[in-house]
Write a structure and sequence with these properties.
The protein is built from eight helices and seven strands. With about 230 residues, it is α/β, with parallel strands linked by helices. It has a seven-stranded parallel β-sheet with strand order 3-2-4-1-5-6-7, sandwiched between helices. Helix 2 links the parallel strand 2 and strand 3. The longest helix is centred in the C-terminal third of the chain and has 20 residues. The protein is globular and about 45 Å long. It starts with a strand and ends with a helix. About 45% of the residues are buried.
């Protein structure tokens, strides 16, 4: 059984699509896979209704588990305080992930925003979850100017917390990449010391399930098998 946390260098870099792609690749390889979204914000009460776990299911066919939901599109702890709803507890997240882990080959946990975003009570972050589970993270990064700094800071924070970085992924590779984006393909591993696993096309989240699965397997099939470490 393996747990992998999906985090990002910031919000809007494509974490949900990458989570779906990892799930689709594992499912296509005959693995049992579960997805956990500890805290969802910006859904319901007048905000867009498609939650991240809904996107994952639409793209990969894998159903997700959501532990807390807050209506305003803010950091989870802030959204919880403003809504008056209970804050997420670290122990509850760990318990839910362990339960999923006992029943599946792979559990994917999608964070919120970047590694310093507070998910709930006591200010715990995705790195606290990873540390408690002794689980690695995949870092989803942008392609364009600024991503070297964002990625280096994210990797440094993970290493300071004693969390292993399994790799970097560019979550939305542009159809017409700029000079900076093209150069960043080589520079990201040099600056961070972490390998670049894949680049997912910017429109991948609009693909139907089978077409998305093909993209996912091409990007992550070998990575998932190496992560799980045994044949299906």
């Amino acid at each position: 059984m393996t747990v992998l946390l999906v985090t990002g260098t910031s919000t809007g870099v494509g974490k949900t699509v990458i989570t779906a792609a990892l799930a689709a690749a594992a499912r296509a390889g005959g693995r049992s896979v579960a997805v956990c979204k500890p805290a969802q914000t910006g859904v319901g009460d007048g905000y867009p209704d498609e939650a991240d776990i809904d996107v994952v299911q639409r793209l990969s066919g894998v159903r997700g588990v959501e532990l807390a939901r807050y209506p305003e599109p803010l950091a989870p702890d802030v959204a919880a305080r403003r809504s008056g709803r209970p804050m997420l507890e670290l122990d509850a997240v760990i318990g839910a992930v362990r339960e999923l882990d006992a029943a599946n080959d792979l559990v994917l946990v999608e964070g919120a925003g970047g590694v310093a975003v507070r998910l709930g009570a006591g200010g715990f972050t995705v790195l606290d979850v990873a540390g408690a589970m002794s689980a690695p993270i995949v870092i989803v990064a942008g392609a364009e100017l600024g991503t070297l700094n964002h990625s280096a800071l994210t990797v440094a924070a993970a290493r300071a917390a004693g969390v292993d970085c399994a790799g970097l992924v560019i979550g939305s590779w542009p159809a017409a990449p700029s000079l900076a984006a093209r150069v960043n393909l080589d520079e990201l591993p040099l600056v961070t010391g972490v390998g670049l696993i894949a680049c997912i096309p910017e429109e991948a989240g609009l693909l139907p399930l089978r077409a998305f699965e093909a993209v996912a397997v091409g990007a992550f099939g070998e990575f998932v098998e190496s992560l799980l470490g045994y044949p299906a």
